[in-house]
Automatic annotation (TrEMBL):
The lineage of its organism: Eukaryota, Metazoa, Chordata, Craniata, Vertebrata. SMART domains: HDc (SM00471). This is Phosphodiesterase. It comes from Takifugu rubripes. The gene is LOC115248301. Residues 520-543 are annotated as: Disordered. GO terms for biological process: signal transduction.
């Protein structure tokens, strides 16, 4: 046959060298297969230079193709195009539905059109992208998230095919609140709080649909997670703690507006990391693993032993069992990016990284550059992990005693193994109130402060730029639909737009709870001290308990004995479970103290050590100092730094290791 030519004025293009009969007689692949597009292109698709459709029309006019064959091939080509159209525009249709709800005067038409084109095809930033493009891209994420967040709250959990018992529905109505009671949810769900929290959040954020997570795999995965969290029957590091941290990270993302700064993959990584961050926790500390030379401490070379195990064990679970692999449909790039974020976030929950993490973030806050997302999310997860002292008292009190029971069980193991008690692990001598006050003062409150400053730095420019785009009044009610066992749904109203972010309210919430909890502990400590004699303390070995107004001034360079008093004093106030003298102390040294000393007061204590009645330098060093875990050592280090800046303690800080000198002229004990 003669070749068909196109109608282009520039050139005549040969379309196909085969006859119409040969073209139409091709075996037709399934429309969803890749080869179908090529077949359809020959038959139907019309690039300007080919004009293939016109060619087929001409063949029909010449009678070279039967109407039946032509109709058959046109229908086939149409089915291929319908499939492509459905796949390529599926998210655009959803987006247009969401955009239709936005008042025309709240988003400029340019932004609306740009949003529609951007939301369906997210491309990575090219290398060397200038600062203006980066800032513009941040607005892309912000506006996308404004609609994405609203959409997530209108998704129904019944779409994900998990039935929610009525009691679970009731408890999950509070999941957006700081006071969310995860214990009540765990009771209502029959010890499956992690399953319902993770499932609910993945559904709300539309992550199940976005990343094509098989529902059956998700259910199996969460079941396996709960089995792993229950493996060692821990009082604290269990599935309830995982559910609590996951809900807390959700609150932080939602109420601070951080959602608007993150991509969907980054949100997925954050929720996923929170859910798995303590998987198969042994109920013992990293230091215990190192001291006992456990298998996992040898495997990970004593570095972040538990944290490495948590994330490694989860990924091995996913890799070795297709039935639980919720990441199976991620692209290679998404899989790598998610894994990189998750690994960094989980490893950052190692408390030995705490002060370094805070130091790095404080440094970043002083720089004009944007904050690295991985570091920001790591701090967010770390904060959520230690957040219970900033929760309502009923929750904080319960978490405290769950954690202490876990510590005590470790202490029991240490006693059996002939090891010295780790701090707070001796169930006979631990003073709960003082330990919590110290934890709040030196760990929790500073962490929340830095996190809040970080969020303000991230979100303030984003909100200002959004306002410039006309999004100042961009508000929408969030509707939370939760599937009930009878098919009905319950709803709760809220707001999650950029305009609804209130930093002051968020900050006031955690500050109020922290201060109330600290005052409650102080009240309990005062009640516990009243009426007590020194008999119990002397039976354990005399403790140092000084009243500042009874202290006598000493020189800035104390003697070995006075240094011993200093270190015992520091250890008492920050590590009250272990502040006993070895045998040799005297009863006269057991003086009562009105209240636990704060870190600010330590410098004064340093300068006002008692000059008389001190035990000899040869009995100063208690063996428990050798057993300090990393967290307590960090606390001690901070107090020692205060003492050092006061000019009272000769320390060598050049190596980064605390080196207190206990004996004058001879002998140095190094921690």
């Amino acid at each position: 046959m003669a070749a068909c030519t196109g109608s282009s004025k520039r050139t005549e293009t040969l379309v196909d060298t085969r006859s119409t009969e040969e073209i139409l007689a091709d075996d037709l692949p399934v429309p969803e297969e890749p080869d179908a597009l090529e077949s359809a292109a020959i038959r139907f698709y019309v690039p300007p230079q080919h004009m293939q459709l016109r060619c087929l029309v001409k063949q029909l006019d010449k009678g070279e193709a039967s109407l039946v064959d032509l109709k058959k091939n046109l229908e086939y080509a149409a089915s291929v195009l319908e499939f492509l159209y459905t796949e390529e525009t599926r998210r655009m249709v959803d987006l247009e539905d969401e955009l239709s709800d936005i008042p025309s005067d709240s988003v400029p038409s340019e932004v609306r059109n740009w949003l529609a084109s951007t939301f369906t095809r997210r491309k990575g930033l090219a290398a060397g992208c200038n600062e203006d493009k980066l800032r513009f891209r941040s607005i892309v994420h912000a506006v996308q998230a404004g609609i994405f967040v609203d959409r997530m709250y209108r998704r129904s959990s019944h779409m994900a095919a998990l039935s929610y018992p009525p009691g679970v529905v009731t408890e999950l109505k509070q999941v957006d609140k700081w006071s969310f009671d995860v214990f009540a949810l765990n009771d209502a769900s029959g010890d499956h709080s992690l399953k319902f929290v993770l499932y609910e959040l993945l559904t709300r954020y539309d992550l199940i649909s976005r990343f094509k997570i098989p529902v059956s795999a998700l259910i199996s995965f969460v079941d396996s997670l709960e089995v792993g969290y229950s493996k060692h029957k821990n009082p604290y590091h269990n599935l309830i703690h995982a559910a609590d941290v996951t809900q807390t990270i959700h609150y932080l993302l939602l109420k601070t507006g951080m959602l608007h700064w993150l991509s969907e993959l980054e949100i997925f990584a954050t929720i996923f990391a929170a859910a798995i961050h303590d998987y198969e926790h042994t109920g013992t500390t990293n230091n215990f693993h190192v001291q006992t030379r456990s298998d996992i401490s040898l495997l990970y070379n004593d570095h972040a032993v538990l944290e490495n195990h948590h994330v490694s064990a989860v990924y091995r679970l996913l890799q070795n069992n297709d039935e639980v692999n919720i990441l199976s449909n991620l692209s290679k790039d998404d899989w790598r990016e998610l894994r990189s974020l998750v690994v960094e976030m989980v490893l950052a929950t190692d408390m030995s990284c705490h002060f370094e993490q805070i130091k790095v973030m404080k440094s970043l806050l002083q720089q004009p550059d944007a904050i690295d997302k991985a570091k920001a999310l790591s701090l967010l997860l770390h904060t959520a992990d230690i957040s219970h002292p900033a929760k309502p008292w009923s929750l904080h009190h319960r978490w405290t005693f769950s954690l202490l029971e876990e510590f005590f069980r470790q202490g029991d193991k240490e006693a059996e193994l002939g090891l010295p008690f780790s701090p707070l692990c001796d169930r006979k001598s631990t003073m709960v109130a003082q330990s919590q006050i110290g934890f709040i003062d030196f760990i929790v409150e500073p962490t929340f402060t830095v996190m809040t400053e970080m969020i303000e730095k991230i979100m303030t420019p984003l909100m200002e730029e959004a306002c410039l785009l006309g999004l100042d009044g961009f508000r929408r009610s969030s509707v939370n639909s939760i599937s009930c066992s009878d098919g009905k749904s319950t709803k709760s109203d809220g707001s999650c737009s950029l305009a609804s972010v209130d930093f002051n309210s968020f900050k006031a919430t955690w500050i109020r709870e922290v201060h109330q909890n600290k005052e409650t502990w102080r009240s309990q400590a005062a009640k516990g001290n009243k009426g007590k004699t020194g008999e119990r303390r002397r039976s354990q070995g005399s403790r140092i308990r000084y009243k500042s107004h009874n202290c006598q001034s000493v020189s800035c360079r104390p003697t070995g004995s006075q240094l011993g008093h200093l270190w015992m004093c520091v250890c008492f106030y920050m590590i009250p479970a272990t502040n006993t003298y070895p045998q040799g102390g005297t009863e006269s040294e057991d003086q009562e103290m009105d209240h636990p000393i704060s870190g600010v007061e330590v410098a004064e204590v340093v300068k006002q050590l008692p000059g008389g009645g001190a035990p000899g330098a040869d009995v100063i060093l208690p063996g428990y100092l050798k057993a300090l875990d990393v967290v307590m050592l960090s606390w001690l280090t901070r107090l020692c730094n205060i003492a050092w800046t006061s000019g009272a303690v000769p320390l060598d800080w050049q190596t980064g290791v605390v080196v207190p000198i206990f004996k004058s002229g001879e002998g140095v004990f190094q921690l």
